[in-house]
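Data card: per-record layout.
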Amino acid sequence: MEQVGQRKIDGLWLTVVGIAVLFFLILPTLIVIPMSFSGASFLEFPPTSFSFRWYAAYFTSPEWMSATKTSLIAAVMTTAIATPLGSLCAYGLHCSAPRIRNIAQILVIMPIVVPVILIAVGVFSLYAKLGLNYTLTGIVIAHTALALPFVIVTVMSGLQNYDFDQELAARSLGASRAYALWTITVPQVKFSIQTGAFLAFITSLDEVVISMLVSGGDNATITRRMFNSLRDQLDPTIAAISTCLIFVSISALVMISIFNRNQKNKEQL
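The structure for this 269-residue chain is written out next.
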């Protein structure tokens, strides 16, 4: 009985800690969203009046809309490039020798470990010679380099639980390696691939350090313009934009969850 009581106490303690940590993580969101609906001309919490004026200011501003368009195009292109490249890289690493895999994994996670400002300076210097600064192509390449590690790590995690005997069986029956990969392996790890695609999209959409150096002019990203606005003039438009970005991120995550649930239901039928 004492052990049962102790387990309940431990479980309750862990639950309280978990809730406290989650609350701490979402607290900034809970503050930003109400501030975006404030009618005041400055950021205030709690808001003393309710208004959509800052959303109207955002959606009617050519500068903000241009930056939003650039960020969305860059995020979609980054996802389209990083997802297949990262998935193929993860597959190749998983099938390689353990020593090669371990060394390659260290190199893969380097962009995550190295401070982003160092990467940004290096990219800026390289782009200055190649003429890629302030171009959409340069933004996509830089964002892809940052997103690839997240895709690779996520897909490799999914491949850890995959039984490769299924692919080997298909190849033994005459299927080419590429066909077996596409028809046997990919469907088995599609959730990991979709998760990697989501992380690549969010990584590109939220990137600010590299964007501050390599984007600008007509190809300025939304995060660059937000940072400049925070530096020059602080108004609730920033809160409205932040709320929209939160909505886009949550919507993408919900869509992936719904899609995976529907796929599982079809498989069970």
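Known properties of this structure: The chain has one domain: 63-268. The domain at 63-268 is CATH 1.10.3720.10 (MetI-like fold).

See the next section for split statistics.
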